[in-house]
Amino acid sequence: MSGTKTLDKAITILKLAIDSRRPQNAKEIAEAISLPPATVYRHLAVLEKQGLVRRSPQGSLGPGTELIALVDQGLLHRLLASAARPILAEVSRKLKMISHIGVYENEMVTYLVKSEPEGQKVFTRENEQLEAYCSGIGKILLAELPQQDLDAYLSTGPFPALTDTTITDPEKLRQVLVLTREQGFATDNSEIEPGLYCLAVPLRNLEGEAIAALSASCRNVETYEAEKDRIRKILTDAAVKLRESLYGRWVTKQSTSARD
Asked: Which of 14, 54, 122, 211 lies at a 20 to 30 A Cα distance from 190?
């Protein structure tokens, strides 16, 4: 019976923690259900570790990123966009490049946020979908697909050439995606638009699955090649910062290498 009572307490605490009608902190929950604060903190720690509860910097509680992902992809995307916007603005400031975050859905890339430094423009739009096979974000997310899903995607090729360097052959794209998965980042060498170069890294959830990707793009190939290592580092640091914002203190340092 003790196990059942413990589960009952945890579920009650979870329901109060994710109740959007009145955001509460741990102390208020303890008072509401007449439990010692230490007991509530202990249960909340487990729920937060599993991504079911999320704690704001002010201490108020709400639904965790993993819970949101299970019940509402649209809400997850809005959460990603909100958390990513200031981080991408900083990426663009540091690199003086255009930055994006995008997700893979329905065999396309949906761009959630775009950050453009002054004087730089690119054709992408927020909440717009583009093909996955010819972009940095698309390739890193394709590389992370389960084998069956990737095979299904590649079976829709050959793919239309958007530029002279677009990879249109499914088997050649497969080889590129294998390398992409091994190295932990993707590149777009003027494949979606002539003269536009891009590098992208994954954003992973608590299980190590790529749920989105961050990218930086520029139109100067010399700058892009010379700065590639720095671009990757700044994007990787941004992905770590965003992951910590989404999942809290339980996140260990993110690796952009392939999952085990």
From this structure: 211
CA–CA separation, 91 and 46 (whole Å) = 33
**What whole-number distance in Å separates Cα of residue 6 and Cα of residue 27?**
19
Interatomic CA distance for residues 209 and 259, integer angstroms: 8
CA gap 44, 29 in Å, rounded = 10
Domains annotated on the chain, with CATH: 2-63 (1.10.10.10), 72-250 (3.30.450.40)
Residue ranges of alpha helices (H) inside the chain are 2-17, 26-33, 37-49, 65-71, 73-95, 136-143, 147-154, 170-183, 221-226, 228-247
Q: How far apart are CA 36 and CA 116, in angstroms?
A: 50
Count, residues in the chain: 260
257 pLDDT band (50/70/90 cuts)?
very low
CA angle 202, 207, 213 (to 5 degrees): 15
> How far is the C-alpha of 236 from the C-alpha of 21, rounded, in Å?
36
∠ at Cα 71 (65, 77), nearest 5°?
A: 55
Taken in order 107, 151, 215, 122, the sign of the CA dihedral is negative
The CB density around residue 257, as the number of other CB atoms within 10 Å, is 12
Specify whether the CB–CB gap between 137 and 215 falls below 8 A.
yes
- The pTM score is 0.77
Query: In this predicted model, what pLDDT tens digit does every residue of 125-162 receive, in sequence order?
Result: 999 999 999 999 999 999 999 999 999 999 999 999 99
